[in-house]
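User: I've been trying to design a sequence by hand for this structure and keep getting stuck. Would you show me what you'd pick, starting by listing the structure so we're on the same page?

Assistant: Good idea, let's start from the same input. This is the structure you sent:
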């Protein structure tokens, strides 16, 4: 997302290149889906005692932040607001050298994003770790953002905050990922990896889990630029044996888990779209067109677009080129109806920039090796995870009725119900009036596009 959304998988498996077991590698579950959320998210444990915070995983930004108690304009999110006063290890950062913004003598921040969202707040330091079930994930003392104001997507999104993984520094320290890399007693290498399924996935820090690779698959390595952003050298796009784009057309190519779709420069987008139309019209791909960017499968719901050709992405690897397969289950996503699949790539207009978003990551083991400046990619069977909020089912027993003889008790109960219904009606009327007034006020402050499911174009690079 460029600056504008975890339980532990515990098995003895092979990590990295031959390392066995949980050898200084931390890992956590990811949750999310392109259509339902438009992002993937993890859960962090922050403070002492720890408080759970849900955060979008974003390789396009560096800030790790979330709303705190006392926020003047924050949305209704998955977890309670973080309470700094309830943490024994929380430390505010005062204004001083390297602080770009002061807020009541505390070092603050304001982040604005290209799609119009913004967050502002104050910096603090505290213990933070990836949530996990076996205690192997260790806390580090890191700089964090405490939101005091959220606008647009940050206000309306389900999860609390953002977990920036981009390779650049922030006020007060490096970002959380770099602080984790410094903990060499618990984190082996400056490596992290994603394995994203249709629903959820896994994030590892310190190495990667090769057991997710599909049978017979090994990692293919391509050159990785990691100064300010994660970039790769995209050379060609080949569809059904036809070259639809070459190196000059792509401009800068960024790898970003915070952007939902893969964004292509306008000329490339139209070329790929036309190639798909030509290849799959008249149900040649066992699907009929639904609008400009969707297809309805003839095999019915719960099916996959298996008759659509794969796309090959050609990347720079030293003096060679490496082909990475982009299957239809990744460059398309399942819509609200199970038999309709829509394009998960979009038009980036006249911009000379290509963004490989979540749709590029799907069904792959993707490894960011910042020590060797290389990106590893392999087709994978990524684990699926669904986020289930705990619902309190321990309801209290009903209070006994009034101590009256049966006949009178029934009459009194009827009268009591009538009184209660009348009171409820008055309360509902007052509530309706209040909601109307609130809605009128919010019209001027909030964007009407306020649903996570409407965030398919969540391209949120930091405004320059």
């Amino acid at each position: 997302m460029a600056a504008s959304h975890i339980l532990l998988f515990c098995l003895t498996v092979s990590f990295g290149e031959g390392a066995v077991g949980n050898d200084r590698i931390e890992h956590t579950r990811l949750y999310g889906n392109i259509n339902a959320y438009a992002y993937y998210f993890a859960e962090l444990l922050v403070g002492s005692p720890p408080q759970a915070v849900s955060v979008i995983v974003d390789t396009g930004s560096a800030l790790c932040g979330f709303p705190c108690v006392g926020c003047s304009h924050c949305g209704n999110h998955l977890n309670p607001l973080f309470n700094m006063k309830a943490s024994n290890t929380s430390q505010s950062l005062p204004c001083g050298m390297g602080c770009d913004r002061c807020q009541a003598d505390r070092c603050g921040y304001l982040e604005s994003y290209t799609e119009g969202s913004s967050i502002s707040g104050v910096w603090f330091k505290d213990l933070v770790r990836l949530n996990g079930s076996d205690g192997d994930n260790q806390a580090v003392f890191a700089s964090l953002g405490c939101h005091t104001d959220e606008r647009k997507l940050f206000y309306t999104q389900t999860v609390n905050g953002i977990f920036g993984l981009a390779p650049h520094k922030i006020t007060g320290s490096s970002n959380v990922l770099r602080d984790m890399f410094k903990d060499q007693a618990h984190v082996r290498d400056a490596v992290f990896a994603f394995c994203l399924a249709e629903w959820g996935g896994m994030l590892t820090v310190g190495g990667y889990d090769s057991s997710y690779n599909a049978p017979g698959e090994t990692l293919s390595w391509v050159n990785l630029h990691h100064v300010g952003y994660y970039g790769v050298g995209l050379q060609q796009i080949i569809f059904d044996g036809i070259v639809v784009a070459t190196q000059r057309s792509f401009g800068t190519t960024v790898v970003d888990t915070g952007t939902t779709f893969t964004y292509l420069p306008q000329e490339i987008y139209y070329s790929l779209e036309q190639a798909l139309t030509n290849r799959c019209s008249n149900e040649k791909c066992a699907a009929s067109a639904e609008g400009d960017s969707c297809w309805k499968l003839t095999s019915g719901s719960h099916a996959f677009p298996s008759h659509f050709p794969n796309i090959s992405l050609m990347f720079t690897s030293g003096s060679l080129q490496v082909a990475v397969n982009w299957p239809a289950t990744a460059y398309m996503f399942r819509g609200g109806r199970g038999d309709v699949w829509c394009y998960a790539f979009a038009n980036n207009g006249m911009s000379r920039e290509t963004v490989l978003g979540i749709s590029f990551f799907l069904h792959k083991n993707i490894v960011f090796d910042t020590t060797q400046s290389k990106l590893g990619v392999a087709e994978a069977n990524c684990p699926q995870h669904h986020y289930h909020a705990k619902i309190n089912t321990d309801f209290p027993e009903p209070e006994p009725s009034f101590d009256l003889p049966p006949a009178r008790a029934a009459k009194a109960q009827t009268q009591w119900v009538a009184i209660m219904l009348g009171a409820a009606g008055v309360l509902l009327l007052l509530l309706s009036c209040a909601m109307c007034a609130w809605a009128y006020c919010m019209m001027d402050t909030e964007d009407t596009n306020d649903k996570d499911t409407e965030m398919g174009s969540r391209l949120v690079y930091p405004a320059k």
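That's my pick for every position. To get oriented when you compare it with your attempt: The CA atoms of residues 6 and 43 lie 4 Å apart. DSSP finds seven helices and 31 strands in the chain.
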